[in-house]
Design a protein that fits this description.
The protein has eleven helices and 14 strands. It folds into two domains: 125 residues, Rossmann fold (3-Layer(aba) Sandwich), CATH 3.40.50.720; 165 residues, 2-Layer Sandwich (Dihydrodipicolinate Reductase, domain 2). By secondary structure, it is an alpha/beta fold. The protein has a seven-stranded parallel sheet, sandwiched between helices.
């Protein structure tokens, strides 16, 4: 049994971490931090947890850095997360970070994308990108996991087999993504406020969303050479979920059979990637509340085009579920622990 802390526990990702870890047989939540709800019981912020965490109150972040726990999840904003990670790692405590602070292999790239100075640049080289389907072995050995952004998770998982096996051209790749409003956080800007979103669909983050360089980084590593994709997110009137539709050009000798085989080689034994049968296409409704990523791929040999569709819950597989998956790998627990919940439907 591991005692765990969640720093920044009152956002949506914090809620999801609590929800998932309450069903984890080998983890016990002992520390929760919140500046806003400091010294108040958990159900003051999240009434669904009434009676589930009795005796635990939110504490201020600085005061909890020296508390008694075995592992930490950081659901903090970028720049806030890095110094906390540094302090905890100095105590020998494994850290799963859900911010952007350690996702980039290049500190200057991170600083240019987010317009900030990195608070703990020396740690970046120690972090492992928290995508278990790609970096499982490295996650088992690290003490610092950097959970990917929600959009990068959906797009990277969708395109990774094609680039890894050289089945598509590196140029001209387009990722068209639809997302629910929970991605804007619990205190959203006006553009993510539900009355502003209802009855409409709109793109945002153009010409270059800050998740785009993260995708380029990982897809370039998959291809073994530079990849720069066009990424366009759209906000739609639903609470949670991401649907990513990715378009690419097949290389000359790539066949539909080779494409299908690549996905089966990469994901055939993955516990949380489900390859859809020929008559099924992914839907955000089919993965809501779960840690699954559903993928369908359609190759048109005549037109030399391939379309990949992936669906995830942005708060689970796109954030907190992936964090728990990383935690399990880092601590030697079975990878699926605490993540067995079926999708919610309807």
């Amino acid at each position: 049994m591991k005692k765990v802390a969640i720093f920044g526990a009152t956002g949506y990702t914090g809620f999801e971490l609590i929800r998932l870890l309450l069903s984890h047989p080998r983890a016990r939540i002992t520390v929760l931090t919140s500046e806003q709800y400091s010294d108040q019981p958990v159900d003051r912020a999240f009434s669904p947890f009434r009676g589930r965490l009795e005796g635990i109150a939110f504490g201020k972040m600085d005061a909890m850095l020296s508390a008694d726990f075995d592992a930490a999840f950081l659901a903090l904003p970028h720049t806030v997360s890095a110094p906390v990670a540094e302090a905890l790692l100095s105590r020998g405590i494994p850290v799963v970070d859900l911010s952007a602070d350690f996702r980039f292999r290049s500190v200057p790239l991170y600083e240019s994308v987010y317009g900030v100075t990195h608070k703990s640049p020396a740690l970046s080289s120690r972090a492992v990108y928290g995508l278990p389907e790609v970096y499982r072995k490295a996650l088992r050995k690290t003490r610092l996991a950097a959970v990917p952004g929600c959009f990068p998770t959906s797009v990277i998982l969708g395109l990774y087999p094609l680039l890894k096996e050289g089945l598509i051209d590196r140029k001209g790749i387009v990722a068209d993504c639809k997302t629910g409003v929970s991605g804007g956080g619990r205190s959203p800007s006006l553009g993510f406020h539900y009355p502003e979103v209802e009855e409409g669909v709109r793109p945002y983050g153009l010409p270059r969303h800050r998740h785009n360089p993260e995708m380029d980084q990982e897809l370039s590593l998959a291809a073994g050479q530079k990849v720069s994709i066009t990424f366009v997110p759209h906000l739609i009137p639903m609470v949670r979920g991401i649907l990513a539709t990715c378009y690419a050009t097949l290389r000359a000798k790539a066949t539909p059979e080779a494409v299908e085989a690549a996905y089966r080689r990469q994901y055939g034994k993955e516990p949380f990637v489900r390859l859809c049968p020929p008559e099924v296409l992914p839907s955000t409704k089919d993965v809501a509340g779960s840690n699954y990523c559903d993928i369908a791929v359609r190759a048109d040999e005549k037109r030399r085009r391939v379309v990949v569709v992936s669906a995830i819950d942005n708060l689970v597989k796109g954030a907190s579920g992936a964090a728990v998956q990383c935690f399990n790998l880092m601590t030697g627990f079975p990878e699926e622990e605490g993540l067995h919940s079926a999708p919610l439907f309807p």
